[in-house]
Amino acid sequence: MGKKKPVKQRLGQSPKNSAGMGLRHKLIILGLGFCLVLAAIGVGSFLMFKALERSEFFQVTAIRIQGGQRVTKNQVLEQSGVDVHTNLLALDLDEVKSRIESLEWVEAAEVDRSWPNRLQITIRERVPVALTSLKEGLFYLDRNGVAFAKVLPPEDMDYPVITGFSREPSPQGGKGTPLGEALQFIRLAGLGNTMLPGQSISEIHLEPTGSLVLFLVDRPFPIFLGKGEMATKYSRLARVLGRLYKENEFAATAYIRMDYLPDKVLVGLTHAV
Predict the structure, then answer these.
(1) What's the farthest any 2 CA atoms get from each other in the chain?
(2) How far apart are CA 131 and CA 147, in angstroms?
(3) Co-location of 136 and 68 in the same domain
(4) Cβ distance 56 to 115 under 8 Å?
(5) Is the overall model pTM greater than 0.70, yes or no?
(6) What is the Cα–Cα distance from 56 to 162, expressed in whole angstroms?
(7) Rounded to an integer, what distance in angstroms lies between the CA atom of residue 150 and that of residue 152?
């Protein structure tokens, strides 16, 4: 028997390495194929979406508007920019919402699709709680202290007036701010206490120091509320007014200081009664 010839092998390559490289090549090819499939699906979806955006099937045929009293449905519809040619699928709801909320009497708006071709718009209007005088004229103030709409006679002006108010910085009606405390006092008066109801408040003046000065509709004297603890001061002032009424001392009252001492009220009289 002859001797077996040795098997020659290329340097740096083994059958095991060759198999590994082949597997890697297959994985790369599979990965590229998968990416191409995803790209094709994405392009197809995009083209389909664009086609649906132009489809008459999704054109708006009805718009339902709820929640408006001061703002008319025509105003909301015009401001929304939506009409019967608008495609519901292509509609940017956030943009429509933003347009509607730019109306001065609208505090918030909700815009919802009702497939396949209807749109639902619900608005929440601002509720005036006071008036304030600005350079541009007399404005309504809402519960958050936002001066949102100019008062145009013969509109309702039966609200307390807040003076010393400035729009800058805005909004100023946050908790602990002078305007916020004035609005809190007005809210407390609206709860129905017979000695100090909301309709009895004529003016609340915001002093540069942040203190509040209250003026009543049928009483000429100032009431110095000071700063802070409006709930306590409101309750205490209602009791003081009740006592002055019972003792018939309103005519002799020159002022009331709620900021005299933490637990005391100072009533100034024009003469002894």
Answers:
(1) 147
(2) 8
(3) no
(4) no
(5) yes
(6) 53
(7) 6
> Which residue type occupies 138?
L
Q: Measured between alpha carbons, how far is 109 from 261 in angstroms, rounded to an integer?
A: 46
The CATH number for 113's domain is 3.10.20.310
Digit-coded pLDDT (tens) for 226-263? 999 999 999 999 999 999 999 988 889 999 999 988 88
Query: Which tokens belong to 131?
Result: 């008036």
- Torsional class of 231: left (φ above 0), alpha (ψ -120 to 50), beta (otherwise): alpha
Q: Per-residue pLDDT tens for 102-157? A: 999 999 999 999 888 899 999 999 999 999 988 888 999 999 999 999 998 887 78
**Single residue among 100, 125, 150 that ends a domain in this structure:** 125
Render the burial of 90-118: b for 16+ CB within 10 Å, e for the rest: ebeeeebbebbeebebbbebebeeeeebe
